[in-house]
Design goal:
CATH topology: Rossmann fold
Strand content: 5-15%
Bound molecules: adenosine-5'-diphosphate, magnesium ion, zinc ion
CATH superfamily: P-loop containing nucleotide triphosphate hydrolases
Distance between the termini: 97 Å
Number of helices: 11
CATH architecture: 3-Layer(aba) Sandwich
Radius of gyration: 29 Å
Helix content: 40-55%
């Protein structure tokens, strides 16, 4: 049996103990919350918003963002190219620049339908400095934000690299596979410095043609000369870009001279 005072004493001890334990717990939780700072407050970095009541979960906004960053990293598009947006592309509301921009924006907007068609691609050719690469990058960036796997291919660099790897089957396959299978391939400066290239470009274009995979192309050469460079590659590309080939002609379009 315990006396009242004994119990009171005991209670006192207990209270002290409880206080200590509480303080300890506080300390631990404070430590936890200061050590573990979640990057996303909405999902605590799980990537999902869970609704236990409804027994359901939806992807958190941050997981889209992380996925976008990953796609952007894999695309080969430099982060400085992010500045080449549609907004930054100036036109005076008429003429070829306006037409090109309108077509590019429509391409992005209708991409989900266009990609299923035979003519699923878009090309900007002609005058140096007229904004061909800028518009193509704007398309790529917008589609990356829609989680489309875009791959950038600098024609001349990529061919040089592929040719160097030609004898090493594994790295060659790895590199060319990237261009063959990307959801959208951006070939910048097609046929630039074209010499006697082997069938590398043809291998990429032919594969994409038969797989129904779209390309965005820029080229200083007008598309009738694509046929002269390489009829197989040129004719497939012209077919894929049919109805969406923008031709920039005239030195006055050279933005580098007009700044
Ligand atoms: N209409 C435009 N509005 C704003 N900047 C432009 C425009 N056209 C071209 N530029 C800029 O001029 C430079 C050259 O354009 P670029 O797209 O590289 O030309 P191209 O690929 O046709 O040679 C880039 O810095 C680009 O952002
Ligand atoms: Mg260019
Ligand atoms: Zn989140």
């Amino acid at each position: 049996m315990w006396t009242i005072s004994e119990v009171k004493n005991l209670k006192g001890v207990e209270d002290q103990l409880t206080q200590k334990v509480d303080a300890l717990l506080d300390k631990i939780t404070t430590n936890i919350s200061t050590v573990k700072v979640f990057r996303c407050q909405e999902c605590n970095d799980i990537g999902w918003i869970v609704d236990q009541g409804a027994n359901s979960a939806r992807p958190c906004k941050c997981s889209y963002k992380a996925y976008f960053e990953k796609l952007m990293g894999c695309s080969g598009i430099s982060s400085t190219a992010k500045a080449k947006t549609f907004d930054a592309f100036k036109t005076n509301g008429t003429g070829i620049l306006f037409k090109a921009k309108t077509l590019a924006i429509a391409y992005v907007r209708e991409f989900e339908q266009i990609r299923k068609q035979e003519s699923n691609s878009i090309a900007f050719c002609g005058q140096v400095g007229s904004g061909k690469t800028h518009l193509a990058l704007a398309i790529c960036y917008e589609l990356l934000t829609r989680n489309i796997k875009v791959v950038y291919m600098d024609y001349r660099d990529a061919l040089t690299r592929l040719k160097q790897n030609l004898m090493e089957a594994e790295s060659y396959q790895l590199e060319i596979q990237k261009y063959k299978t990307a959801e959208l391939l951006f070939i910048d400066d097609l046929f630039k410095g074209k010499g006697k290239d082997e069938n590398i470009v043809y291998e990429i274009i032919n594969f994409r043609y038969f797989s129904g995979l779209p390309v965005v192309i820029t080229s200083e050469h007008l598309c009738n000369s694509w046929l002269e460079f390489d009829e197989g590659t040129g004719s497939r590309l012209i077919e894929q870009c049919s109805g969406r080939i923008v031709v920039f002609q005239g030195h006055e379009l050279n933005h580098r001279l007009n700044r």
